[in-house]
Write a structure and sequence with these properties.
- The chain has 199 residues and is of the alpha+beta class.
- The protein has a single domain, classed as START domain (Alpha-D-Glucose-1,6-Bisphosphate, Chain A, domain 4, 2-Layer Sandwich).
- Helix content is 21%, strand content 41%.
- The chain contains five helices and ten strands; from the N terminus they run αβββααβββββββαα.
- Strands 1, 2, 3, 4, 5, 6, 7, 8, 9 and 10 form a ten-stranded mixed β-sheet that branches.
Length: 199
């Protein structure tokens, strides 16, 4: 349920600088998911890692392709690009939540950077006032995260996907935290399958 709320974001996914003491919660199918409780929140942050047999640029291009977002991002119901200026992106997404929780929506800003070693970092944060909230949706107002694509060799990339978010509304932290592992796992699994199929 609530992981569908927390994940999206990601979509395209700002480091969760207040999250630390990561604990491994899942290690399956070549994907590891860690959880941590940020200092300023009772909601768990997550960090998921895997290896994808594709170059960093190819994977980053998949992330930037909004037409693929709802195929690959866990819980995504709708996603669209609002504006792009160079490596800065403004986007909007809706997240499907399981009954009885209301669906969520999110306005986000992301910025991509290329580091000297070839690593690509896409930082993501919520911009709650940028796009009006949709009717019958609860707005996610707090989200910080990043995607990191680290080259291992010319055709292999370590992918790190990290997010700290709060689902908004009245979802209690204990309930949201029960579902925070499946979202990043399913998202990285889908990205890996897609990237390796088209390389």
């Amino acid at each position: 349920m609530a992981y569908r709320i927390l994940t999206v974001i990601l979509l395209f996914i700002s480091l969760s600088s207040h999250a630390e003491n990561w604990e491994l919660e899942m290690d399956k199918e070549g994907i590891r998911v860690f959880l941590s409780t940020p200092q300023d929140s009772s909601f768990k942050a997550y960090r998921a890692e895997t290896i994808i047999k594709a170059p960093p640029g190819a994977i980053a291009s998949i992330l930037a392709d909004m037409s693929l977002s709802c195929q690959l991002m866990y819980g995504c119901k709708q996603a669209r690009l609002i504006k792009q200026q160079g490596y800065d992106y403004w986007a909007y997404s809706q997240i499907k939540a399981a009954w009885p929780v209301s669906d969520r929506d999110l306005s986000i800003y992301s910025h991509a950077e290329l580091e000297e070693d070839g690593t690509i970092v896409v930082k993501v944060s919520a911009l709650p006032e940028n796009v009006p909230a949709a009717k019958d949706h609860i707005r996610i107002t707090k989200l910080d995260g990043f995607w990191k694509f680290i080259p291992i060799d010319s055709q292999t990339t370590q992918v790190i996907y990290q997010v700290a978010a709060e689902p908004g509304g009245s979802v209690p932290a204990w309930l949201a935290n029960k579902f925070v592992v499946d979202g990043p796992f399913e998202t990285l699994k889908a990205f890996r399958q897609h990237a390796e199929a088209i390389k």
